[in-house]
Amino acid sequence: MLPTPDNHYLGSREVRRRYNDISDMALWRWLHNEKLNFPRPTIINRRRYWLLTDLERWERARFRRSRVMRGDPHPLTKTGAERQ
Q1: Confidence label for 7 from pLDDT (cuts 50, 70 and 90)
Q2: Quick one: CA torsion of 46, 50, 51, 57, rounded to 10 degrees?
Q3: Which CA distances in Å does 2 have to 7, 9, 20, 50?
Q4: What tens digit of pLDDT does each residue of 22-31 get?
């Protein structure tokens, strides 16, 4: 399958680089932390590959959760506009 924007894969080195050069052990911990819900890789010849769309979906979900945890209103709501 040829790479398209919908099925672009990143290897573990690229994934670690994407998240500020985390170590391989940190990536392993993320994969084994059920609360973190980090996307599962596809394994090909004992190498791990992540779909870019899965990583972006996970990032958006983490961003939304962090806003809710802080109690930040959505920037497009009236309350959010009043705060700016």
Answers
A1: confident
A2: 150
A3: 8, 11, 28, 15
A4: 999 999 999 9
User: Tokens representing 16?
Assistant: 């670690």
Cα 46 to Cα 2, 24, 41, 49: the distances in Å are: 21, 15, 11, 10
Question: What is the model's pTM?
Answer: 0.72
61: CB partners within 8 A, 6+ apart: 37
d(CA 68, CA 39): 21
Q: Both tokens of residue 3?
A: 């790479």
CA-nearest of 51, 26, 24 to 40 is 51
